[in-house]
C-alpha cells in the first residue's frame, strides 16, 4: 500500500505517542515506533493493532543511544520525518533526580538530531510543553509570551531542548526543519477505549487520579489549594483532548512535508480556555454519574496558579483547532478506566 511517507515516532507506545500513531496511520502515513518501555506498557501496541487491524513496527531501543538509533534509520530507510515524544515527564521526580531527566530528555534529542543529520532526514516535530512559560505574567499565553525560569528540571529540559533546536536552526548548513508543539494539559482516551493514559504507579496527572478514585483504586482525590486567585480558588489549566492533540501532530507533519514550515516554528496546542480543578471534578461527576470522594488540601509546591493558551497562531498558521471539549475528554477517560478494570477480570 502506497503511503504519504514513513514517520518515526519516538515514545510511540506512550500516552500521546500511541494516539499520534493512530492518527498518522489514518491520515495515510506509515508510523514506525521507537520505545524502550520504561514509561509505557506493551499493551499499548496491542491496543494500536486492535484499532488499526494491523501491527505497527516497533523498535525497542533507548533514544539516547546513537548506535541503536543509527541502526533503526539504516534498517528502515526513507524516513520522511520524525515526531519526538520520548521523554521523562514527572515534575516531582525531576526535582529529586535532575540528572536522570537531563540525560534522557536532552540527551535523546541531541542523539536524534545527530542521526537525522547523518541520514539527511530533515523534518522534526518536537513534543514541547507549556511548562516553558513558567508562571506567566499575563493570560492567555501566546507564543511571544516570555519564556521564564522553569519551575522544575523537567520544565528546564523542555526549555533547553527548544534552545538547542533554535541554535541548530540558526546555524550554518543545518537542513533540519522543526515544529515545536507546546502542549497544554492532555486528557482523555481514544473513543474505542483500546488505548489511553496508563500511569505507572501513583498518577501525576489530575484526570487519571480522578478516574482511579472513582473506580476504587485510590481512596480519595486531594485538590491542592482552593485559595488561588481563580473563580473558585483552585488551579486553572487548559485541558485538551488527547485525540485533538494527536491530530495536531499530523497537521504539523503535513506542513513540514509540504515545505511550508520555516526553519523552526513554535505553536501553542490547547483549547484556548481554562478550567479549574473543581470544575473538572464536577464535570466528571456529571458525565460519569459517579460521586467523587475528594478533599481540599494545602497548595502543592511548584504548581502554577493558572495557565491557558492563546491558540490564534495555531489556528491561523498551522490550520489547527480542537474539536472535542472537557466533557468528551472526561467521558472517554472514564470509559478507558472501566475498560482497564474489565480486562483485569
TrEMBL record:
Keyword Zinc (UniProt): no
InterPro entries assigned: NAD(P)-bd_dom, NAD(P)-bd_dom_sf, UDP_G4E
Annotated keywords: Carbohydrate metabolism, Isomerase, NAD
GO terms (BP aspect): galactose metabolic process
Pathway: Carbohydrate metabolism; galactose metabolism
Gene3D superfamilies named among the record's database cross-references: NAD(P)-binding Rossmann-like Domain, UDP-galactose 4-epimerase, domain 1
Taxonomy, superkingdom: Bacteria
MF terms in GO: UDP-glucose 4-epimerase activity
Listed EC numbers: 5.1.3.2
Cofactors demanded by this protein: NAD(+)
UniProt xrefs under SUPFAM superfamilies: NAD(P)-binding Rossmann-fold domains (SSF51735)
Domain (NAD(P)-binding) ranges: 8-331
Catalytic activity: UDP-alpha-D-glucose = UDP-alpha-D-galactose
Keyword Chaperone set for record: no
Entry GO terms, CC: cytosol
Root EC class: isomerase
NCBIfam families cross-referenced by the UniProt entry: galE (TIGR01179)
Subunit structure: Homodimer.
Membership in a protein family: Belongs to the NAD(P)-dependent epimerase/dehydratase family.
Name the UniProt record assigns to this protein: UDP-glucose 4-epimerase
Amino acid at each position: 500500500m502506497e503511503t504519504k511517507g514513513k514517520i518515526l515516532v519516538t515514545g510511540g507506545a506512550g500516552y500521546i505517542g500511541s494516539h499520534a500513531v493512530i492518527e498518522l496511520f489514518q491520515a495515510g502515513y506509515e508510523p514506525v515506533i521507537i520505545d524502550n518501555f520504561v514509561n509505557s506498557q506493551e499493551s499499548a501496541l496491542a491496543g494500536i493493532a486492535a484499532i488499526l487491524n494491523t501491527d505497527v513496527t516497533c523498535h525497542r531501543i533507548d533514544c539516547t543511544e546513537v548506535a541503536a538509533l543509527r541502526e533503526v534509520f539504516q534498517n528502515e530507510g526513507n524516513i520522511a520525518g520524525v515526531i519526538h515524544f520520548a521523554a521523562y515527564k514527572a515534575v516531582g521526580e525531576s526535582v529529586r533526580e535532575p540528572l536522570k531527566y537531563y540525560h534522557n530528555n536532552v540527551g535523546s534529542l541531541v542523539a536524534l538530531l545527530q542521526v537525522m543529520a547523518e541520514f539527511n532526514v530533515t523534518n522534526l516535530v518536537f513534543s514541547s510543553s507549556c511548562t516553558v512559560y513558567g508562571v506567566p505574567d499575563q493570560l492567555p499565553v501566546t507564543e511571544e509570551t516570555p519564556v521564564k525560569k522553569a519551575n522544575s528540571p523537567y520544565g528546564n529540559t523542555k526549555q533547553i531542548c527548544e534552545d538547542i533546536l533554535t541554535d541548530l536552526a540558526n546555524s550554518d548548513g543545518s537542513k533540519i526543519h522543526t515544529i515545536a508543539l507546546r502542549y497544554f494539559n492532555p486528557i482523555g482516551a481514544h473513543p474505542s477505549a483500546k488505548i489511553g493514559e496508563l500511569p505507572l504507579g501513583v498518577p501525576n496527572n489530575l484526570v487519571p487520579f480522578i478516574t482511579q478514585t472513582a473506580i476504587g483504586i485510590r481512596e480519595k482525590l486531594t485538590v491542592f489549594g482552593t485559595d488561588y486567585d481563580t473563580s473558585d480558588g483552585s488551579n486553572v489549566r487548559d485541558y485538551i483532548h488527547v485525540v485533538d492533540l494527536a491530530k495536531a501532530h499530523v497537521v504539523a507533519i503535513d506542513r513540514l512535508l509540504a515545505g511550508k514550515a520555516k526553519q523552526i516554528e513554535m505553536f501553542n496546542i490547547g483549547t484556548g480556555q481554562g478550567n479549574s480543578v473543581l470544575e473538572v471534578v464536577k464535570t466528571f461527576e456529571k458525565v460519569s454519574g459517579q460521586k467523587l470522594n475528594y478533599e481540599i488540601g494545602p497548595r502543592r509546591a511548584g504548581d502554577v496558579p493558572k495557565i491557558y493558551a492563546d491558540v490564534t497562531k495555531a489556528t491561523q498558521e498551522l490550520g489547527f483547532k480542537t474539536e472535542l471539549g472537557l466533557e468528551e475528554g472526561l467521558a472517554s477517560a472514564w470509559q478507558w478506566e472501566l475498560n482497564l478494570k474489565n480486562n483485569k477480570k
